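Record type: monomer structure entry
Structure origin: computed from sequence
Chain ID: A
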Amino acid sequence: MRSSNPVFSRRGFSRDNGQAGFNAAPQAGGPAVGTQNPYATNPYAANPYAPQTDGQYGGPQAPARAGVMTIDDVVTRTASTLGTVVLTAVLAWVLLPVDESNLGKSYGIAIGAALVALVLALVQSFKRTPVPALILGYAAFEGVFLGVISSTVSTYLSPGVVVQAVMGTMAVFAGVLFAYKMRWIRVTRRFYGFVMAAAMGFVLLMVANLLFSVFGGGDGLGFRSGGLGILFGVIGIILGACFLALDFKQVEDGVTYGAPREESWMAAFGLTMTLVWIYLEMLRLFSILSGND
């Protein structure tokens, strides 16, 4: 199962030879019986569901191979990436004031940082293997953008909005993780196709709204304020939650199949992008709700 998030070109884990590793991966709930492990040189060593010579499943296994991805690797890399986002966001909040005399300059730096982050994310998405420098660079520049945007919202709308957005993002992450572990969310190919189609439609509508607002003035098509803004904010958060489920599935498959350890950076990259997406949608939603009070 290939996973994705708002950067639609991000691939799933790859085989050592560069071919996609999860195009034929099993559905939610673990690998299917007899599913070929795309990573193992000895399928019985890494896949407990692979058939043994006597026709039974789950027979004696060889010791775990070195150099394969583990949950601890994913947690460590994700903590490093998110930590970079938070650190640069705090620095941007402190060093790039958004008062009337500095707002234009700070906004310019934030937009430039967002463009650099987008370029780095796209470059990583097209690479066959994860590059930690690109991923951490993306996190650093994304943090600058988030810091300025968050400072602006906090200054001109409501100081509590940023805290609400952070808490909301954490709540969505915890809720989706719990639901995924309980198997209330079943990540199937149909689920993947639905999420990708919905996300592409959502992004196209947001781009159209941006173009109308730039060239036509006002709020464009009205997707960023009022009732429609609230509706699309909720839809954006739900899509982010769906992307989290896809990312959890990707991590689960990578650990199950013994993906190379460096692929934990790709997992961290995907999780970070998804959490940034959710945070921005939370920030927008709470900003609209605060403005309606």
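Annotation 1: The helical segments are 43-46, 71-95, 103-126, 132-156, 160-181, 189-216, 226-257, 263-292.
Annotation 2: DSSP finds eight helices and no strands in the chain.
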